[in-house]
Model the fold of this input.
Amino acid sequence: MSTPAPRPPRPARPAHPASTIETKPTATPRPHTRGSDRHFEPRGRNAYLLGIGGCGMSGLARMLKACGAIVQGSDSTPSETTDALLAVGFAVTFDQSRQWLPGDSDLVIHSAAIKPDHPQLLEALRLGLETMTYAEALGRCMAAQTAICVAGTHGKSTTTAMLGIALTDAGLDPTVIVGATSCQLARGALAEPREGHDGNEMGTPTGFRLGATAIPRGLLARKPGLLLAESCEFNRSFHNHRPTLASISSVEADHLDIYGTLDAVVEAFHQFARLIPAAEEGGRLLIAHEGAHRREVTAGLSCQVSTIGFSPAADYVVRVDTDRRTATITHDHRELATWTLALPGVHNAMNAATALVLATWAGAEPGVVARSLSRFKGIDRRTQFLGERPLHAGGERGQGVVRVYDDYGHHPTEIDCTLRALREFEHPEQRGGRLICVFQPHQHSRTRHLLDEFAQSFSQADIVIVPQIYFVRDSEEEKARITSNDLVDRLRARGVRAMHLHPFEAILEQLDNLCRDGDLLVVMGAGPVYKIAHAYMKAGKPTSARVATTPTA
Done:
């Protein structure tokens, strides 16, 4: 059994691993974070949400309404998410240019994308209304529930979805807010298909699930209901959260426009970990044995700390059989569960293993969780298989198909892991094909800070096409410091066939001329680059949209 890590003498860092220590810890006070510990009673509030069309914000809107609040909001443009909100009775507008709010508003919640000079936020301040960020509002909700927070540089959305679906299958009825959509989130992966649907149609894709107000069964039965959410480190927003259970999958240099240095990123994760209650209050942290700076992050924590990894030294040891496409997790030299890998890549095996441990901590049976993970169908834009694009007869390309994936990866580690996993999973070279990647960098500052790492992350690609860098959050001065051509030059210097093309229509034309039978096309990035993948598929009238668990041999 792992036990809480002891608090080391200051200022020295601990030299021991952050688990299996038999010394009783000394409590470390939680950092002060803008009142997120205060009880938040939504019932009767008139909440107006700025940026209501975001995955997290739309989920928060639904949760607040279910708790008795009157909720409306605005967004910059209509979307499938806002359409879904309108369909169930939310009032949503799309004019954010005026300093205007509904007269009965008494609370304004805004997404991280809303700038301080936003007209409607300025109106809220002028009227003296209470305002919160999304992270603050979510943290206030967590304070009254049993919160499970999934943190780390990578894998948050996938792990949170896996966990939410598994807990649903285990009968623990969680509330879940995840930054992507899943067709299985509402009912679980093991639910029987609805009448008139086949086994692939489990429900409408959603990023939100409303659960019970109290945990119905298991180790934590009758405690306040489970609330699962991603805890994002951007702008230190996760410091507003209030986890009872938490995981940290990785800690790497990212958001350096906010943090400046990796040391500052590590310190931010340490402050997040300090928010977890003491072990005697049920607080538990699962942290990666490697790649998460666990000694620095867990120094002085009063919660119970356990590690997870491929190393035999970890508390929870994960083994992957790539030939059989299975994963097994052991604890204290006992096998907890074995499941079939539903998604390609050892990183997704680790995401699943993390979800399994957190689920068992919440009271789920490991066997049920393993069956759920085996039937997990993935989430939007995370190694998402869109289908096979047929090539038309004529020209040098001839007939055949191109297999197309869409992925959200926008950090060098994510790119390398995903491309490596897809090459191992799809083996395009065995079909005489190539791996072609269209990658849109996200943020000029991230591209500049991690340029060398980006150049090294495409070793698995045969051809890389780079559109314009997606301009978001950065200043015009930062924008002028780097272009897509800088990345293309670095890639070419490493022997990668790379080109810079824009606009998106030019890339589609190039793909039509370039792709041949057997090719694997991967479209990557956190910006609107996904439109290329969908437009390419639409132009070819795809023959299928099967899930990624049925690759062509």
User: Anything to note?
Assistant: Residues 346-361 form the longest helix (16 residues). The two ends are 43 Å apart (CA to CA). Residues 270 and 297 are 4 Å apart (CA to CA). The chain has a mean pLDDT of 86.
